[in-house]
Amino acid sequence: MNLMLLAMLLALLIPMYEAWQDDNIWQKMLAFASIATKTSILILVVSVLRDDWMIGVVGVLILSLGNASLMLLAQIIKRLNQI
């Protein structure tokens, strides 16, 4: 189980490197959305391992609401740069 959690944490480094490397705002937002999705999946795995459903509810909320707000922020930043 610990090996699986370590692999999931290492998978978080890939989009962080991509966000650091690229200057395109959409690529950065997609990388941050990927980080949010992987973090929420990691939270769900931990909640199953600990048998704690309250942590799982937080993971589901992050998974369902987190990416939508991040994409809305990216659209607002794109519109502000067009003005």
Automatic annotation (TrEMBL):
For this entry, the protein name equals Sodium:proton antiporter
- Origin organism of this chain? Spirulina subsalsa FACHB-351
Q: Does the keyword Transmembrane apply?
A: yes
Keywords assigned by UniProt, alphabetized? Membrane, Transmembrane, Transmembrane helix
TM segment ranges: 31-49, 56-77
